[in-house]
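Risk register update: the risk that structure generation would not scale has been downgraded. Supporting records follow, first protein first.
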Amino acid sequence: MASLYTKTKLFLEANSKTWDDTKVSLQDNSDGNGVFIASWSYDIAKPTTEQLASYETASDTEEALQVVLNNRANDYPSIKDQLDKIYHSGIEEWKKVIKTTKDKYPK
């Protein structure tokens, strides 16, 4: 199940807005009711539960992609090591190193 943050972010983007912590805040009162939109000051109406639910599939996809991108970022050699690889071994050898990580964590 996608997070309220991701669904709200996609709702905003679909309405030509971007996430702004000064215009929206999410809250969880730890009362079993989950996360909710605590404040909203955009110039569009706050999304309904039904509107947010319509972003469930797209949000699941975006969150799964973010996991892949985070895994790749953690697995890639440092920029310093990548540049060293290019300098000493050339672009084609560097591409092999990068491809190993891309193959390990496909999109």
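Supporting record for the second protein:
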Amino acid sequence: MAEVPSYADLQAAIGQPCRLIGESGASCQASLIAVPVLDALDDSYTCYAAVVRLESGVDAHQANYQFVLPDWRSWPLMFTPGRLDVDGRRTMSAVIHVRSGAFSALS
């Protein structure tokens, strides 16, 4: 399995439930809501993010989480809190920065 999810992995999972599992083992349900392409370090890199919305009433802090998709593929990623959505639910983002060509979906 790849060390990070590919852009295609994440695009295919938009709108699906996922799970964030903290280092303590505590976990929460989330939904992958966006996979924006971001500015990379330079032309030899590709950068994108996994943006999730946490379940209602859950707040989380910046930390390393195991990010688990519905098909049980998972990756360790650092998520950072973002703004609350219109329903008051917390969003979190993990930025993924890889060498261009590592995943062909963005080429």
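Residues 12 and 35 are 10 Å apart (CA to CA). On this basis the risk owner (M.S.) recommends closing the item.
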